[in-house]
Amino acid sequence: MYKxxxxxxxxxxSLSLFAFIALYPFGYAVYLSLTxxxxxxxxxxxxxxxxxxxxxxxxDFWVYVKTTFIYSFGVTFIELFLGLALALALxxxxxxxxxxxxxLMLLPLMLPPVIGTLMWTTIYEPERGPLNFIxxxxxxxxxxxxxxxxxxxxxxxxxxxxxxxPFAFIILLxxxxxxxxxxxxxxxxxxxxxxxxxxxxxxxxxxPTLMLVFLIRLALSFQAFETIYVSTRGGPAISTMxxxxxxxxxxxxxxxxxxxxxxxxxxxxxxxxxSNIFMKQTRRT
Amino acid sequence: xxxxxxVVLLVGLFVTVLHLSSLAGDISMTEEMRKANxxxxxxxxxxxxxxxxxxxxxxxxxxxxxxxxxxxxxxxDFQLLSDNEYWNKLTLDxxxxxxxxxxxxxxxxxxNYIAAGYVEPLTAYLNDPKLTDLEWYDVDDFFELPxxxxxWDGKTIGPNTYGIGDVYSIPFTSESxxxxxxxxxxxxxxxxxxxxxPELVDIAxxxxxxGVYGFMSRGSRKFSTLMFGGYSNxxxxxxxxxxxxxxxxxxxxxxxxxxxxxxxDLVRGAAPPGYLSFTWEDARSSFMSGDRYAMTIEGDVFILxxxxxxxxxxxxxxxxxxxPAGPAGHKNGQVSWSIGINSKSRHKNAAWLFIQWATSKxxxxxxxxEFLTFPPTRRSVWLDPSVVEITGKWDNGNxxxxxxxxxxxxxxxxxxxxxxEMIGLNEIWTEAVHKVILExxxxxxxxxxxxxxxxxxxxxxKK
Amino acid sequence: MEKKARRLLLxxxxxxxxxxxxxxxxPFYWIFITSIKTEKDVIAYIPKFFRFEATLENYADLFQxxxxxxxxxxxGKTPFLDYxxxxxxxxxxxVGFSLLLGIPAAYALARYRFPGKEKLAFFYISQYFLPPIxxxxxxxxxxxxxxxxxxxxxxxxxxxxxxxxxxxLVMRGFFAELPVxxxxxxxxxxxxxxxxxxxxxxxxxxxGITATAFLTTVFSWNNFxxxxxxxxxxxxxxxxxxxxxQTYVKVxxxxxxxxxxxxxxxxLVLAFLFQKYLVRGLTLGAIK
Lengths: 285, 463, 288
Prior knowledge:
By secondary structure, chain A is an all-alpha fold.
C-alpha cells in the first residue's frame, strides 16, 4: 500500500466526466422535481414539494411501489435460487461436457435485453405465439400472458429471470469451484452425507457470495427497463408499471418533466439505501 | 438470322413504346402542375429539407421529387424515416428550435405542436395569390372535417374548439374508426347489424362460441387504444364528454359511467383473453388470418390489408358499417396525417410550394390510386373512377356508402377535447378503462380517480 | 447403495440441466425461424415450427441486396446497416475510453491508502447501481443545449456512466491480486513510478484488462435505455434501431427478427469465443 499526495491525479479524469454526466444532471433532476416544468411549454414555475405531495397522495403511487418491490425482490430471489441450483448441478463431478454446458447457459446474459424481451414477447403472443399453441395442443386453455395483471407481471418477471439467472449461476459456480476439495474430503471422512456437506460446508462458505449476488441483482433490478417497456409498456392498466417505467412514461408520454423527476428521485432514494447496505456488507468480508 | 433480327426489332420497339408511354405519364403530372397560375420557379435555387415518415404518401412522392425540382428549381433534400424514429426526431427538432427541416409530416391530433408554436400557420400562404392558385388548388375539394381539425387558434382549449383560427397543416389521408364484421359468421348465426350499442354488445357476446370471439380491437395500454379501438365512438355517441366547456373533467358523468360499464362488459364477454395486450398490429393481422373474430372496431385504413388477397384469408367476407348511434348520434374517432411547415424554417415560401404540390389534386390522386394512400381527404380523389373501382369492391360497395355517410354528415372527427395534453390524457384514460375491464375498480370509482388526475393535467390551462 | 443414489442424482441433474437449456435455447430457435419466414407465415394463426418455406429474403432486405421493394415496405435504404455501423463505431470507443478513465482509478484504489478512499469507491460503484433514469431525464435537455444529442461523442460519454464503475470494480480486484513485491522490487531496481505502472503493473494485469474490456464491450453493445433517450435517428445504435421495423400500416416481424439475429450476434460471438475472460471478469468483480 502506498501513500502519495498525487493520488488524486488518478481520479481526476473520471471524476470530471462524472461531474458532467452524473452530478450536474442529478442536481438538475432535484431542481426539476420541485417545478411544474413540462417538455412542451417554455415557461414553468417553482412549486416546492407539490410534486412529491401529489405523488404520495396519488392512489396509484403505492401500487407502483408494490409492483416495483414485487418485481425486484421476486426476480432476485428466483435468480439466486435458480442460479444456485444450476451451479450445484453443474458442479456435480460426474457431469460431462461442463464447458459446453456452461457457455450455453451463459447465453441469455450476453443477449441484449431488448432483443431477449422481443423474443419472449413474440413467444407470449396470445394468438399466434408458440406457448399458447403448445398449451392448446395439450388440451389446456390458452393464457393471456401479457394481457392480464397477474399473468403480465409474472411473464415480465420471467423474462428478467431468463436474462439474468446466468449472472447468479456463473458467480456461484465460481464460488463453489473455489472451495477446496480437501474440506469435503475431511468432512466425508467424518461420515457426512451429501446434504450435510452442502448445508454445513458449501452454504456457509458461499454465504458472502450469495449475499453479494443478492444485493447486486436487487439493486440492478430496480433499473429494469427493457423487460417491461418492450413487452407491456406498464400495462394492462398499471399491473407492470414499476417506478422506473412510470418515471419514463411521465416524462416522454405525458411530458410532465417535474413529476417524472420526482418519481426518479424517489426510486433513487430506495436504491441508495440498498447500495449502502451492499457497501457495508462487502467491507465486512 | 432474319427471324432473330425481327424479334429483336420488335422487342426494341415494344420497350421504347413502353418507356415513352411511362414518360408520357410523368409529363402529364408536370403539365397538371403547370396549370396552376403561379410562378413555380419563383424560389428557384433555394434548398429545402423534407422530413417524412415511411407511409404510402411519402412513397408516392419519392419518384416525383426530381419532377418537382425541375418544375421549381428548388433543391429537395428528402429524408424518410420509420414511424418511431420519425416522431422522435421531429419532437426533438421542434424542441431544440434548430429548424433543420422545412417540411414536416404531422397528425391532426398534435395540438401540442400548434400550442407550442412549432408549426407555421398556413392561411397567409393559401391566401397569397402569388404563392397559391386557390382555384386550381381548390380548398373546397377537401372533405370538411379532416381540414377543419387542422385549423386551430393555438390557445382555445375545450371540446370541439378546432375549426377556428389558422390552418396549421394540410391533411392528405384521414383514417376513421368503423365497424368491420364477418358477413359469413353473422349470417351463420342469423345476426343482423346492431342499431344500438347494447345490441352490439349482445350480438358480440352471443357470437363468442365455438372458437370464435365476437369482438376484438387494439386493447393495449396506449393512448390510441381508446381513441381508435372503438371505445371513443361509443363513449361520445352516448353523449358523454371528457371535459366540459370550463375544462372540468367529466369522465364520471352518468353517461360516461354507463358506457364504460357497457364497454367493459363487451370486452369481458366477447373479446379474447389477450385483448389487453393487443396492439393495432395484432388487431390488423388477427382479423384477416383465420376465422377467429366475428367483428372488430378499428381504423378503416386496415381495409387495405384485409381486402388484399396476398395477405388476407378473408377477402370479400367482411362487411363494413358505422358503429351504432347513441343519444348523441353517430360518432367516429378519426386521425389524419397532414403536412406542414416548421415555424423555424428558413425557406418557408419554398416549403409552401412543396406542400401545395404534394397535396394538389393530381398528386393526391396518384397517392391514393397508385400508392394506396388511403383513405383520401379530397373529394375529387374519392370520386375518381380508378379509386371508385378499387374501393367499390369492398363489401359490394357498402364501404363507399359508409364512408360517404360519415364524411358528408360529419360523424367522423376529433372527438376529444382539443388541448396540448390530448395524448397524455387519453393514455391515463386507457389506464382507467383497463382497470374497469379487469374489475380492479368499478366504472364509477375508476372514472372518479381519472377525473382527479385529468384535472391535474388541465390545471395550468384553466383561467 | 451410495452408487445407485449417485446415479439417480446424475439423472436428475441431467434432466434439470436439459430442461433449463431447452428453455434457454428455445427463444433463439424461435427468433431464428421467424427471421427466415415470409410475412404471411409469420402472422399465420397456427404458428409454424418446422413446416414452412424458408427464405433468406429478410436478410437480403435488411441489407438491400436485390431489387428495392415498393409500397408499404421499406423502399430505398433501410437504415439497418447504419445502425449496425453506429454500434460498431461507438462501442469500441466507449470501451477504450472507459479503460483510460477507469484503470488509473482502479489502480489507485487498490494500491493507495488515503482518507475517504472507501467513500470514493462507493461513489463510483453507486453510479452503476443507481437508476440511470434520474440523470437521463435532465440529460435529455442538457445534451441538446450542449449539442451532444444524437452524436457519437454524446453516447460514448454517457456510456461511461456504467462502463467506468464496472471497470473500476473489476480492475481493482485484479490489481489487488497482483503481489506488491513485484512492483516494490522494480522500484528498488531504479524504476520510477511511470515505468512501474506501464511496464509492470499493467502488463501483469493484462488478463484482467481483457476481461474488463470484454465485459464492458458486451454491456455497452447491449445498452438500450441510454441510446433510446439521448440519441436520435442519425447515431442510433442497433439495439434501439431494431424497434423501428414498423410502418404506418404494419409491424414487420420477419424483418425485425432478422435484425435481431444480426444485432445479437456480436456480443454472443464475443462471449462464446472469450468466455474465459468474461467469467473471470464477472467473478472477480463480485468475489474478492
